Amino acid sequence: MHTGKPTAQQILAAARQAGTGVAAFNFTDIWDLTAIVNVAQRRRVPVLASSYWAVAETLGLEVCQAMVDALNRRVDVPVILHLDHSSSVPLCIAAIDAGYPSVMIDGSMCPLDENIRMTREVVEYAHRRGVAVEGEIGKVLGRSVEADPGGSFLADVDEAVELVAHARVDSLAVGIGTAHGFYKDEPKIHFQRLEELAAAVNVPLVLHGGTGIPDADIRRAIRCGITKVNVGTIIHTTYLRSLREELIRAGDFPFTIDVMRNVLPAIESVLDDRLRVITGDDAATA
Questions:
Q1: Which of 105, 141, 273, 275 is 20 to 30 A from residue 218's alpha carbon, by CA?
Q2: With 60 as the cut, is the pLDDT of residue 162 above it?
Q3: Residue 252 per-residue DSSP state
């Protein structure tokens, strides 16, 4: 684990106190990870580089850790490796053993008592090793989770209080109407519920499903209590669409490096735009 830079806990705590946002960008390989590190360095802000659980399992936890650790040596801003949306306690523990400084255990699909039990198990293991843990209450829409008139996907304030109190998470992802992937319609974010959650728990709150949320809503969510904003779909979609265009342009005998030199700027442009909004760099002109 890279030393000498702030930890995930310190970065989120400082942003929460300052009322600003921290970006967590999902990567799938060395190329979009490189883009994340490049943009963080240019903007001089810390970021989390998140490996979705399926990416971590496919590439290997040790490979993800080694890539982030190596790229971290090139820059002087913190890039924190984070395990995203793992519903598996053993995977979280394996990630911690592999050197991940931050993990998410997602028990939101389970009854509250089971969510607390599995989250607390990860927290107890992680905290002995100085690793940050994100939990979740309520449900992020998409991936087979649908909105309903009764709002059962929304994070319950009392349940959030219980989870934080009994599991002692370092941050908490909350279901407030955001969704994974692109939105078919305008996102309906429940800002009042977000304010209630922020007033009830004393940990940084996390917004999942950052792709496609209007800039004004991201800024409002941060003002209402969100600290970390996760962005994934727009990154890998931009990556693969740009790659397809470059492969067509390159013809029958493409060379990886030549192609990726043209793809990286497209990925970095999206990252830069999202970082600009999340960190509030454009607040004066918004």
A1: 105
A2: yes
A3: T
Categorize the per-residue pLDDT at 179 as very low, low, confident or very high, splitting at 50, 70 and 90: confident
DSSP of 20-73: --EEEEE-SSHHHHHHHHHHHHHHT--EEEEEEHHHHHHH-HHHHHHHHHHHHT
Residue tagged active-site, from 32, 84, 156, 217:
84
pLDDT digits (tens, 9 = 90+) for 77-115: 999 999 999 999 999 999 999 999 999 999 999 999 999
Q: Side chain identity at 273, as an amino acid letter? A: D
CB-based contact 115:138 (threshold 8 Å): no
Q: Active site includes 84?
A: yes
Report the alpha-carbon distance of residue 189 to residue 109 in Å, rounded: 20
Q: In this structure, what token pair is assigned to residue 78? A: 């913190």
Instruction: Judge if pTM exceeds 0.85.
Output: yes
Phi-psi region of 192 (alpha: psi -120 to 50; beta: other; left: phi over 0): alpha
Q: Which helix (H) or strand (E) holds 233?
A: helix 233-250
**What residues does 80 pair with on adjacent strands?**
48
64, 131, 254, 258, 267 from 245: Cα distances, Å: 27, 40, 12, 13, 13
